[in-house]
Design a protein that fits this description.
There is one protein chain. The chain is of the alpha+beta class. Helices cover 40% and strands 26% of the residues. Strands 1, 2, 4, 5, 6, 7 and 8 form a 7-stranded mixed β-sheet that branches.
Length: 211
């Protein structure tokens, strides 16, 4: 098994390029982690989907990743790197073999790992797709804005702020809707789809939160 040493990772539930890392993210220092060369199509699947690996693969990588933590070295049970010869990604699995967190690498470290991977044989991953992620073309900032607006809208709905929801619907779609359930669902979809009214919805919440 091939290993990469001394790299920084930022494990998140979804994959974010290094330039989307936030200052308050927990960056961890990896001492040692297994590396596998895979084909480009498998890399895309792992990047954009939740997958489950078979038991044999989980046993293969179990406790093979070491992390620097203060003055000690701790183990990550199920973690590894994959590269398609150009891009590199770190992956963490749950105990059931399901992808739970992913991390890009810093640019220089990505290039170094990609160079090392070219000397490896392509590894035939055995996995099944559990779920394909939505909004894979949105930036991290856009995804976080979508989640924030959905949470604010749902909060209005749960607290039976029917007048505010119907007013927001009127402002966005320029027609009345007295059925709050219909108004909520339409606004919910508008936010999820990144519709043209997303800016109006964001301004609405800024305004009511100032009062």
């Amino acid at each position: 098994m091939s290993y990469i040493y001394d790299i920084l990772l930022n494990f998140q539930k979804e994959y974010y390029d290094f330039y989307e890392w936030n200052p308050n993210d927990e960056i961890i220092h990896i001492r040692k982690i297994p590396l596998f060369l895979i084909n480009k199509s498998d890399f895309e699947v792992l990047k954009n989907s939740m997958v489950q690996f078979d038991k044999n693969f989980c046993e293969k990588i179990f406790n093979r990743t070491e992390r620097f933590k203060k003055i000690n070295i701790t183990l990550l049970n199920y973690a590894f790197l994959v590269s398609d010869g150009n891009r590199t990604m770190a992956v963490k699995l749950s105990k059931n073999g399901i992808t739970s967190h992913k991390s890009a690498l810093l640019m220089e470290e990505n290039e170094e790992v990609a160079d090392v991977s070219t000397d490896l044989k392509i590894y035939d991953l055995n996995y099944k797709i559990v779920k394909t992620h939505n909004d894979t073309f949105k930036t991290r900032l856009e995804q976080e804005k979508t989640e924030r607006l959905l949470k604010l809208l749902t909060n209005l709905y749960n607290h039976k702020e029917d007048n505010k929801i119907c007013f927001l619907y009127l402002d966005c779609f320029e027609k009345n809707e007295n059925n709050v359930n219909i108004a909520f669902e339409k606004l919910n979809q508008e936010i999820k789809n990144g519709g043209t009214n997303t800016g109006k919805i964001e301004d609405f919440f800024k305004l009511i939160n100032q009062k």
